[in-house]
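note to self — DONT lose this again. spent like an hour looking for the file last time. sequence + predicted structure for the chain T wanted, 196 res
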Amino acid sequence: GHFMTRIRTLLPLVAILLAASPAALAAAQHPLEPLSSQEIREAARISKNYFTAHPPLPTDRLLYPSIILQEPAKAQVLARLYGGGPMPTRMARVELMHYPTNRLWVVTVNLDAGMVVEPIALQAAGTQAAVTASEFVNADTVVHANAAWKSAVSARGLDPDFCYVDVWAPGDPPGEGALSNGTATRLLRCLTFYRG
């Protein structure tokens, strides 16, 4: 549908932005200012380089579901805003998901120093990262290609091409024995809506 066409058009642009070489980082004006696009690219680059330099951490098929500001301590913020204190160190909280194993790491990146703050945190097996933009597109494609789904929609007198698939987080999954790839299974809940 139209929405998915727009998402597919934007994905290459997002990939180009993330792959672009980092420019000098613009100084934030406020300690709680969200990360700039340059800071996001730099945090992704630094964390990727860290994984490459530290085998056996994975380096293939890594996704970045979330890169956000790691907020400084309240005392640092207040000192800056009301006491003329120094600008707190800019830190990023980066989630890296290794897609083939469905494992998630949380990495803190010191943007001022250009380095990962150790230790990095491997989340418990089965911890699910936020749904990524590519997963929204992939889920829509998989559902629209599924013969059983097409048959069920058609049996209701609806045209599958006029159906919108809304992708959600799955909620609590069934027991591990029911998952095709155990804890490496990535689940999404797909709801169908008719646009006609």
